[in-house]
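Complex record, two chains
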Amino acid sequence: MTSEMNMEEKKMIKATINGIEVEVAEGGSILDAARTVQIKIPTLCKHPDLDATGACGICVVRNKANGRMLRSCCTPLENGMDLLSEDAEIVEVRKTVLDLLLSRHPNECLTCARNQNCELQTLCADFGVRRETLPNIVPDLPKDDSTKCIVLDPRKCINCGRCVDVCQNMQDVWALSFLNRGIDTRMAPAGDISLAESPCVNCGQCSAHCPTGAIVEYEETDVVWEKLHDPETYCVAQIAPAVRVAIGEAFGQPIGTNMEGKMYAALRRMGFNAVFDTNFGADFTIMEESAEFVKRFTKGEGELPLITTCCPSWVDFMEKYHSDMIPHFSTCKSPHEMLGALAKTYYADKMGVDPKKIYMVSIMPCTAKKYEIRRCNDMSSSGCQDVDVSLTTREIARMFKQSSIDFVNIPDGEADSILGDYTGGGVIFGATGGVMEAALRNAVWMVTGKVPEKPEFEAVRGLEGIKECKIDLAGKEVRIAVAHGLKHVEEVLDKVRAAKTSGGELPYHFIEVMACPGGCVGGGGQPYGVTNELRSKRAAGLYKCDTECAQRTSSENAHVQKVYAEFLGEPLSEKAHHLLHTHYSTKRAYQR
Amino acid sequence: MTRLTPNDLSALRDQLRAAEAKTFVSVGMSTCGIAAGATPVFKTLQELVAARNLPGVVVRQVGCAGMCSREPLVEVRVPGQPSVMYGNVNPELAEKIIESHLSGGVPVEECRIPSLEEMAVFPGDPEPDSVNRPLQTRIVMRNCGLINPDSMEEYIARDGYQALAKVVSGMSQDDVVSELEKSGLRGRGGAGFPTFMKWKFTKASKGDTHYIICNGDEGDPGAYMDRGILEADPHSVLEGLIIGGYVIGAEKGIFYIRAEYPLAVERIEKAIKQARAAGLLGKNILGTEFSFDCEVRLGAGAFVCGEETALIASVEGRRGTPRSRPPYPSQKGLWDKPTMINNVETLANVAQIILRGGDWFAKVGEGKSKGTKVFAVTGKVKYAGLMEIPMGTKLRDIVMKDGGGTSTGKPLKAIQTGGPAGGLIPESLLDTPVTYENLQQLGSMMGSGGMIVMDETDDAVELARFYLGFCVDESCGKCAPCRLGGRQMLTLLNKIADGKGTKADLEEVKKLARAMRTASLCGLGQAAPNPVMSALRYFEDEFTKRLVG
């Protein structure tokens, strides 16, 4: 950054809101300025992750100089402005906008997935909207549950545009768009095809950003209840890393609180026969992936850079939009799939349970995991489907609430010792850069025979969209990139393509990609209200958990080593390949 | 044509003028004329002139002269004689014109109408005495109906591209801006923003390149002056665009024209090609260092794409929806570069201001509204058409003089100006002089210059319903107040019009109007309640008498 730009950045704008002086850097909105002095102007369409579009009109404030109203979300503060955030007319206008939105919104709050967690509902409550003054004009539009991951309910859509912005600009997927105009304007896949036929990668960021119940996860709690009460079924669960630091939010706990002990205990009380931890699967993923990396990097067997594949949305995105990169993809399955395969082979054998009777429920921060469990035949490597159902954090939180469990106060439980123990390397998977950091720790161990003295690789942490760094691996430079949020993928891959085309030096040897901004802590299935602050706090919960682990490097996981010794042989063995690896193929972005 | 220099241009003009001593039989062949049947008239005239072997008689097409209700128009201009205009000409009358006027020298009185010279003062004409002064002053429409729009030579013969030559060979960018400032020209597309400021701001914006866009996405119901100008005198708009490009430092200009204007598109494209071939467009314009080129982009017919930011989105290939301003297009416009968007009529004024000076232009008009405005006068008016009126003219004069009063002979009730963003002005207020400020004060606006005349049988509620319905259809759907407010207001208005509304419904209409005006994102939504509110302002009894309970 040049000094001139720094100078420009320092230019401050001063104005007055409700008689209180405010100051923000030039370009800052009235809304931002107001928040610095604890004036919380109500908003609806504006999301902190996204640029303001000005779609709803709730956030209007008055410019006292000319009496005109301005949208505080998208109007930059100007020097000398004298603004008023409320008067009788402003309140009337905001209420009228809510009246209008309600007139085109079904009156179904009690049966809506977002009941008590809906931004429109909250605003209507705050503004004391007591009657429907306008004729109800909700169109008769069908739900789209074609993906079995995400459900679109266009009747509940208020056209705020967040999902479209997320899908097109944050995620670069371009599945969602607006169709038609005027009163017929609606959010839908371009061309009015089903979501399953669209380029959607099921990341669920649209659902995480939707202010209402127009986009929600595909709910599968009923089938889990059935299985739990079926005496013929042996129910097992596994908990993904990022879930434990987010689920507390659904129970009023401080953001980032690690609730894993409560989850283990609650799942047992619900009737699960065994409770595993996906962190254990993550340690396996690291064993396999770092072996894959070291093989490609030191022995030159296979293409570099190696690209991580834990994220099913990323895999789907790559198969649809970047399939020329397939040779670079790690063949490792994601942690919950590895654990599923081991549960229905090694564990079943050990416990003498018929694998066909085992019902594996994986609890994930993710909507795309619902897709991944049926992605291809490799996901049934145990002989039956390795993971039977995948629930999001939001779904399991509801199940806990349905279970008469005092979740916050229940004494901490333990995971099963087989397939339950984990290292710090496993738990940091849930934050962007975590897979990379864990793999690097293990690669050091593989190359040098010793775990790294300082296990922290700070350069791959944090919320910068693309993180690049160079690591010394036993005297050899390893160039690394970590990208999260799919919009950042192309820039990284294009550098690789350019180097391959020109025959120049590779920009990277190892790349981690997570589809969701912040990685799994910001996953599409996590509790609502995601912001960067929240992503950071959840990630901090994981890094805290990492430092509290006795072992920080996956190879140190004694149970992992035991499974290799007793069952798999060694990383990348034939058996490991059969159970823990997969393959990829080019897909059409549009399925029709 | 070889590439011209400023000197060549003047020489060519003089040469073309000298060659004009012929008898011209001109047929108005714009969309309006063609629709009214000008093609068979033109054909008849051509055939008869050929058959009679009339020496020195040239039959040619010209653009729209603005006298729409009297199309097809035929003008006979014999050297040394005043021009004679004929209206509502059919092939039989065309034959009479040949027989009587061209062969016998006796004009055909049965279809004779006032000539353009009798109707309007033209730039360079001696100022007539105030008693006999025609109502119109034609600056923008100086060539409309007088030249063949497909002929660049005819434009050049009437001082075409002289302003461009003057600018590129001796005026700085600031000189041009200062001339515009003196002229007091304001945007003719609706908002009336001072044109010099737009040019100055865009010129001052930093960027590696700048763009200029001519907004030809005319869409107000009943307004068609931009089409009229583009079809009748495309080079005048192009010249304004090139000068604008010079001033703001653009290399590229765009004509954004709605696809429903195929003839306008055809003529402007032809004009661009001709100008390029003559070195008036493209690299090193008129032999100077200045290079600038332009292209035509078609609008798909959404009214909202006339709004600057939606227009830019549309040019970029995105969904045509507005975004909030600032940043203004002058700061961040097409492809995020500083962009100046001017309306067709605005640009058509530029060359005359440069040639004759800002002070000359500022002599026409009143108060802060300088120059002229082209109105499209339609509805229940005897002579519908385009009328270029000096600012400050009384509204009544427009309707009663050149408009000829109501077409039904019934008393005048009101006029509607400003299109869907404007409002009703009752007969009692028609002595108001036309200015941006006056119209706004009356609860209407200048808009693009649509003027719909209503007689006493017309219903204010119906008119309000029509305009609101237009805005509801044309809402882009992006912002809630416009998307939903318009629809709900229309539902209530329909209820009232059908005699089923209550007092509470009328109050709800007013409440929705307040919310739409204050909380809609763009001008379309903010102004959509205007026709309803102005109908209520002047004719509330027509609403209340239909209420029940």
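Note: The two ends of chain A are 46 Å apart (CA to CA).
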